[in-house]
Design goal:
This protein has eleven helices and two strands. It has 288 residues and is mainly alpha-helical. Strands 1-2 form a two-stranded antiparallel sheet.
Length: 288
């Protein structure tokens, strides 16, 4: 019996060590996409962690049944680190336009609090399909509506009205926190249609992800504290602490590796690779 327990424990330990090595590897990928495309924390981490938790714990376990909530909450927590570091890199590279960013920050934060609270109350499977539906609609919008694939001339950059800024920013914060993404899938097309080049559009997605990450993480931790008592492992609310650690370590490597490429991708290539990555994430979340 003792031998059986030891072998079971060793197999269990190896399985979870392997899981966190995989998470660190994908965290590195998330760091690269955060710097170059303005997303990574959500669109890489949420599908990956959702699948990893189901595989490691089983769909019928307490963790498996809360897998989407854990993936979304952990994603917003990882996003804090990734967005901060990527913002610092882009600030050094001179690709941030703070005049375009500042009016959006506060409203995005308010929307993020409401979105995270709504996600905690929603069914996890419903959140997954909302993620898939929104991503699919965004890809179609980028392909079919003028202004994303071919940007306007720099002289045609157009500021939004105060009402449009407030309502749009609240919607961005709500959707981003509800789905555990940084809002780049909304802010990048928005900036493109204002005539901003892809390098600056993706750069500005990083500071705009910070209010989503901070407000969303705090909400997921506070509102889910009691409902996560039965989860295996170390959790703060719905945030999986070991997974967060592995993803952050990987993302630090990825951000550092991608920093020299800032501003070096041709605008058209940058745009099409962005769409290709969104399609890959869509397929990963839609297929069971």
């Amino acid at each position: 019996m003792q031998i059986y327990r030891c072998s079971f424990f060793n197999a269990f330990r190896r399985r979870f060590v392997s899981l966190y090595f995989v998470l660190a590897g994908f965290g590195c990928l998330a760091g690269v996409t955060t710097v170059l495309f303005g997303f990574g924390g959500g669109f890489v981490v949420v599908p990956l962690l959702y699948r990893a938790l189901i595989a490691a714990h089983g769909a019928d376990s307490a963790v498996g049944q809360s897998a989407m909530h854990i993936a979304v909450a952990t994603s917003t927590c990882v996003m804090i680190v990734g967005a901060l570091l990527a913002t610092r890199r882009h600030q050094r590279a001179g690709t941030l336009d703070w005049a375009q960013i500042r009016p959006l920050l506060g409203f995005i934060g308010i929307g993020a609090i409401v979105g995270a609270a709504a996600a905690v109350a929603a069914d996890g499977e419903w959140v997954r399909w909302a993620f898939v539906a929104y991503l699919g609609a965004t890809i179609l919008d980028c392909l079919l509506r003028p202004g994303f694939l071919t940007r306007a001339a720099p002289a045609m950059v157009r500021p939004s009205s105060r009402a449009a800024t407030a309502s749009g920013s609240l919607a961005i914060g709500f959707i981003a926190a509800f789905l555990g993404v940084g809002g780049s899938v909304m802010t990048v097309p928005l900036m493109r249609r204002r005539g901003i080049d892809m390098t600056r559009a993706t750069a500005m997605a990083n500071p705009l992800s910070l209010p989503v990450a901070l407000a969303g993480t705090a909400t997921y931790m506070a509102l889910a504290w009691r409902s996560t008592a039965s989860l295996e492992g170390w959790h703060i609310g719905y945030v999986d602490v070991p997974a967060f650690g592995a993803l952050v370590v990987g993302s630090l490597v990825g951000i550092r590796a991608a920093a020299p490429l800032i501003g070096r991708l041709p605008d058209r290539v940058h745009t099409w690779v962005y769409l290709a990555l969104l399609l890959a994430v869509l397929a990963g979340m839609a297929l069971r």
